[in-house]
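Why should sequence recovery work at all? Because a backbone constrains its sequence more than one might expect. Tight turns favour small or flexible residues, buried strands favour hydrophobic ones, and helices have their own preferences. The token representation captures these environments compactly. In the example below, the structure is given first.
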């Protein structure tokens, strides 16, 4: 497909149902390397965990080098490669719980937890004191601390369990191998049985899980404090957190300067692809691309109970609108993927803001607004996604130029983006938010009609109306409230 032609067709589309740019695709290639997509998406997982970008990719390099020292089989190295890259797939599932428990920024809490030995009560207490109700009064801090102490070790176990189980579930959804899913389940177990969530010991923990556990800690220390500190930490926890044989394998290449220099490379994505065992390179065909989009929609929607099913529903509505224009099935497939992935940048916004009971402040709104640009940046890393990044990243643009993140106006906004925007606005308005009730369909129609031609495309609004009225719609709020109740029950 000619990308520049596609771009001009999509960008210059004028909102009239006479025109139909539907033969163009947003995604370029039918078959690309899965590692290329997963490396780009692993950055979204890094920001969810509050880690510097590239954490999962650097962990992957460290773990794969350990596997090389151990002369592991090709099949094991292939399973390990994806476990390392996607070890944090479940990380959005416990974000709301952590933000609520500490009364603070889940990104900061998650990252700083990795920089302490939380099995040491003194370090754990200091960590809680720093992160509980930051900026709050001493009483607020003490109340949060007391709640954490009351829920005790079980709360920590539960947090790890949610993350590991959801992560393994999504890995299976991506059709990755069972050893990959098992490694994600075992990620936070410790050699001496002091880890979470199952308190497994020694070789009860899968070898791949043990490597992932060591690699992720080494990466965090390496990036924060340098190689010596990382090796010192691994040596100190040898036989406690980590399998002694794996620490020895790590230390065997600590003086290989070229290897460690790779971790600082700005070309991490291309470095990564060289470490996937060549004879079992996984490819992403059309079916797998759909799975990847669905899986990451799950990761995004799990971030907050208030956005439960949001991406899935936006995708469904966007396809419904496209269908009214008589778009091709290829275009519908692409717009569905854009809908599923449009809010991937929300993983970079703290739950302390997303789940706030009151209306966000101006500064918090500014942080929320940055998600559209994050979505663009993450998706842009996958060259084969072509126009998908432009469309997904443009879902908050307005025809009058008052939208974000670029402030595009009129004909600068593509047909696909216009569809996505209307789908997103419709889904958001029919959903409840912590600070407002869900709107009825009649109210949604009135608001969209008022904004048609100013903010949103009138033809897309008309297409939405036709589609909406042709179909039955289950209550949006019921599914949201069930998700909120589930979260409250877990607290
Ligand atoms: Fe959004
Ligand atoms: Fe959205």
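From this structural description, the recovered sequence reads:
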């Amino acid at each position: 497909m000619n990308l520049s032609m596609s771009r001009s067709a999509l960008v210059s589309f004028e909102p009239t149902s006479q025109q139909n740019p539907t033969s163009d695709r947003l995604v370029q290639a039918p078959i690309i390397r899965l590692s290329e997509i997963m490396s780009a998406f692993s950055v979204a997982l890094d920001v969810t965990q509050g880690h510097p970008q590239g954490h999962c990719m650097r962990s992957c390099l460290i773990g794969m080098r350990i596997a090389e020292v151990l002369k592991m089989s090709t099949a094991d190295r292939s399973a390990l490669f994806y476990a390392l890259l996607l070890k944090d797939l479940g990380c959005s599932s416990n974000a709301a719980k952590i933000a609520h428990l500490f009364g603070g920024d889940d990104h900061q809490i998650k990252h700083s937890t990795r920089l302490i030995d939380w099995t040491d009560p003194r370090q754990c207490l200091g960590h809680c004191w720093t992160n509980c109700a930051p900026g709050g009064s001493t009483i607020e801090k003490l109340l949060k601390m007391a709640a954490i102490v009351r829920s005790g070790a079980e709360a920590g176990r539960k947090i790890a369990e949610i993350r590991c189980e959801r992560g393994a579930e999504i890995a299976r959804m991506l059709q990755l191998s069972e050893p990959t899913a098992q490694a994600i389940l075992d990620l936070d177990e410790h050699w001496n049985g002091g880890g979470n969530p199952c308190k497994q010991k020694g070789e009860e923990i899968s070898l791949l899980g043990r490597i992932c556990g060591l690699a992720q800690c080494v990466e965090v220390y390496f990036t924060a404090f340098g190689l010596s500190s990382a090796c010192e930490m691994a040596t100190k926890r040898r036989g406690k957190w980590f399998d002694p044989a794996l620490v020895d394998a790590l230390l065997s290449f600590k003086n290989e300067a070229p290897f460690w220099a790779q971790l600082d490379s700005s070309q991490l994505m291309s470095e990564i692809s060289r470490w996937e065992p060549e004879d079992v390179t996984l490819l992403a065909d059309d079916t797998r691309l759909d799975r990847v989009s669905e899986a990451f929609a799950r990761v995004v929607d799990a971030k907050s109970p208030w956005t439960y099913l949001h991406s899935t529903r936006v995708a469904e509505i966007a396809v419904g609108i496209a269908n009214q224009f008589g778009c091709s099935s290829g275009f519908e497939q692409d717009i569905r993927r854009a809908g599923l992935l449009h809010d991937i940048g929300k993983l970079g916004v703290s739950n302390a803001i997303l789940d706030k009971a009151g209306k966000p402040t101006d500064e918090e709104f500014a942080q929320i607004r940055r998600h559209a640009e994050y979505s663009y940046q993450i998706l842009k890393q996958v060259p084969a996604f072509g126009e998908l990044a432009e469309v997904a990243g443009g879902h908050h643009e307005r025809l009058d130029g008052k939208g974000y993140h670029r402030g595009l106006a009129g004909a600068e906004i593509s047909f696909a983006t216009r569809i996505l925007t209307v789908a997103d606005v419709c889904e958001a308005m029919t959903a409840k938010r912590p600070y407002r009730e869900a709107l009825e369909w009649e109210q949604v129609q009135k608001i969209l009609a008022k904004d048609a031609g100013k903010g949103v495309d009138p033809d897309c609004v008309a297409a939405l109306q036709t589609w909406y009225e042709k179909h039955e719609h289950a209550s949006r709020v019921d599914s949201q409230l069930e998700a909120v109740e589930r979260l409250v029950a877990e607290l």
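A few observations help interpret the result. The longest strand covers residues 32-33.
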